[in-house]
Amino acid sequence: MISKKIPKERRIILKNADDPSYSNKISCYLKRGGYKTLKKSLKKKPEQIGEEVLKSGVRGRGGAGFPTGMKWKFLDRKSGKPIYLVCNADESEPGTFKDRQIIHKDPHQLIEGMMISAFAIQAKQAFIYIRAEFFEGAKILERAIQEAKDRGFCGDNILGSEYSCDLVVHRGAGAYICGEETGLIESLEGKRPNPRIKPPYFPAVLGLYQCPTIVNNVETLCNVIHIMDMGGEKFSQIGKPNNTGTRIWCVSGQVKNPGYFEFECGALTMGEMIYDVCGGLLPGRTLQAVIPGGSSAKVLRADERFKGTLKDGSEFDWGIEDIPLDFDGPMSAGTMSGSGGIVVMDNTVDMVEAMANINAFYAHESCGQCTPCREGSLWMKKITTRMCSGDAREEDADLLLSVANQIEGRTICAFGEAAAWPTQSFVKKFRKDFLKKAKTQKRKKNSFQLI
Amino acid sequence: MNLSEETINKIDEVIPRYPEKRSAALMVIHLVQEELGAVNLEACEWIADKLELQPINIRELITFYPMLRETAWGETHIRVCRTLPCALRGSYSTCKKFEKKLGVSEGHVTEDGKYSIEFMECLADCGEGPVVMVGEQTFENIQEKEADAMADLILSDKLENSKKFVSYEKAVDSVLPNKS
Ligand SMILES: Cc1cc2nc3c(=O)[nH]c(=O)nc-3n(C[C@H](O)[C@H](O)[C@H](O)COP(=O)(O)O)c2cc1C
Ligand code: SF4
Ligand code: FES
Predict the structure, then answer these.
(1) CATH placement of domain A243-346
(2) Which atom from ligand 3 is nearest to the alpha carbon of B91?
(3) Ligand 1 binding pocket includes A186 (Cβ within 6 Å)
(4) 3-state helix, strand, coil in chain A (%, to 5)
(5) Mutate to test the interface with B, among A81, A128, A136, A351 (most CBs of B within 10 A)
(6) Among the partner residues B68, B127, B180, nearest to A258 by beta-carbon distance
(7) Is the CB of residue B85 less than 8 Å away from at least one CB of chain A?
(8) Is the beta carbon of A245 within 6 A of some atom in ligand 1?
(9) Does the beta-carbon distance from A190 to B24 stay under 8 Å?
(10) What is the C-alpha separation between A214 and A185, in angstroms, rounded?
(11) pLDDT, tens digit (0-9, with 9 covering 90-100), for A181-227
């Protein structure tokens, strides 16, 4: 599928990031109009900002795609307890590398977005929870916060508004589960990051220190500036209804030119992304499978057909290339856009090894609180690793499915699904490969070792 | 506990940032680990005391989080990404190459304490895999061949000034001095 026109990026969040004349210092950000929107927003009533965010229709960019304005509305303001804002900068979903670009290249955009959001929800204090592998990223943020403090954009009495909010950088320590918002909160409290059960522990009601807390992703919080800059109404016209704004898609795996690209939601299809934007597959290869939203999303087979009815009542009959890149497209195809991490696999990939690789990740990262997740993820890893070590059995495919099915829906947090969905989809869609493994016991020819 | 004054000052500066002392645990542990390389029982007790906690409250963190250590990594610690997007571009061979050249298997430290290798989960730079971190610096597109050259530079202590291997962090920061 080669279309003539290469879809054009629309960079709103990444407008400055890769400009060679731009740096992550405050002087550059100010020159390009930085912190003007904060100034403007501080003159509004906090509720008005919330209204604009609701109107914009913006959905969370961290994985679940929950409408941000709605999340802010759930905030328990009656309890009288202090309110906290936490930026989820844990970026740990395999295949995702967009927040890294913002943090390292345009940190002030995040700080401005956070200060507007903090004012909107009247937060007493704000935190950035950043994964510890971003050593330099944490330093860049600390320096940027100091620069912002020195100019009155954050800290005490922000720009003379009498609103004060301190911003603190907090480093994780290499655990994927700290990306899950309640695990993140436990970690920020100085404990093991064991996720909390919802209900009752919805962060907006019982979050950090059992106080109302908003947790939002880096990209989500940056969007708040642009919503306030152009107005919620105008923002809602970017992209498509229910899929507003731009999204930063991260493409990795076996394409010619992987990378991160910002497009209006729904502006292009999976096919255009792979073949036009990323230059297609390596010479002589064909497409085998795509994971569309980080490794937790269900895998798509290249020759599948996706049929059904869209929300607007229209029928669809898509091949993998036709799936629109927005929130609803991958959802209609039975998977999710998740964190926006698109992992491309060509015909050389041994799908059982790919499965074993993913299973090893979840087995390593389970926090261990729930028996189905702790034991199940480990068993799935053991089975697939054994299958790739010359000891595959015909009944393994069903065994894997049975383990995965016993995790899904039986755990405290959505990690259970994140671990089960890949296995369920790989085994169902590539069953032949799992059966073949039992016959040949060999890795597919010319395939990279994946476990 | 032999912590430098500088580290202790930093610790004293970090704790009051939080509404509750316990929240500072990870940040304090990082500071201690940066200086000592690891957080042993004695260090756990010291940190617990500092945060008005029980030693177990610190130890349970050390034993949970992958990046917290009870024993130190080598002077030069190499992290190779193992997760699918990097593996699809050859990270298993990358890791093996480092193991062979540095004479140590992943998860271990050379006897002289100089080098160590860790096969890590996703480092959030998957578009440029295989991704390798040397200390705090991230290097992109390190396939077997590049790993071979990189290992030589590490062994001769010349990676830092290499023109061939410029880290993501350096590339980002290099914008700073002349253009602001
Ligand atoms: C296992 C797991 C890992 C997650 N990892 C991340 C992450 O690394 N970064 C992130 O922003 N959200 C992550 N999330 C989603 C968060 O729980 C939360 O929904 C998100 O931070 C909310 O922000 P948003 O509404 O702006 O998307 C993860 C969720 C789960 C279940
Ligand atoms: S589902 Fe897994 S990661 Fe989530 S709380 Fe249970 S054991 Fe922990
Ligand atoms: S998979 Fe290697 S950086 Fe993400």
Answers:
(1) 3.10.20.600
(2) 2
(3) no
(4) 40, 15, 45
(5) A136
(6) B127
(7) yes
(8) no
(9) yes
(10) 10
(11) 999 999 999 999 999 999 999 999 999 999 999 999 999 999 999 99
Task: Tell whether pTM > 0.95.
Answer: yes
Domain with CATH 3.10.20.600 in chain A: 243-346
User: Which CATH number does A351-440 carry?
Assistant: 1.20.1440.230
| Nearest ligand, measured from the Cα of A409 | 2
Report phi then psi at B133, rounded to 5.
-110, 135
CATH H-level superfamily of A26-237: NADH-ubiquinone oxidoreductase 51kDa subunit (3.40.50.11540)
Read off the pLDDT of residues A387-400 as tens digits, 9 standing for 90 and up. 999 999 999 999 99
B85 in contact with ligand 3, CB cutoff 6 A: yes
pLDDT digits (tens, 9 = 90+) for A75-97: 999 999 999 999 999 999 999 99
How far, in Å, CA of A221 to CA of A235, rounded?
14
Residues 87-116 of B with CB under 8 A from A: 87-90, 92-93
Residue A93, class by beta-carbon neighbours within 10 Å (0-12 exposed, 13-18 middle, 19+ buried)?
buried
- Cβ B67 vs Cβ B118: under 8 Å: no
φ, ψ at B118 (rounded to 5°): -135, 130
For chain A, give every residue range classified as CATH 3.40.50.11540: 26-237
Asked if A190 and B19 come within 8 Å (Cβ–Cβ), the reply is no
Express each pLDDT in A132-191 by its tens digit: 999 999 999 999 999 999 999 999 999 999 999 999 999 999 999 999 999 999 999 999
Q: Which ligand is nearest to the CA of A341?
A: 3
Query: Residue A343: which of B85, B136, B180 has the nearest Cβ?
Result: B85
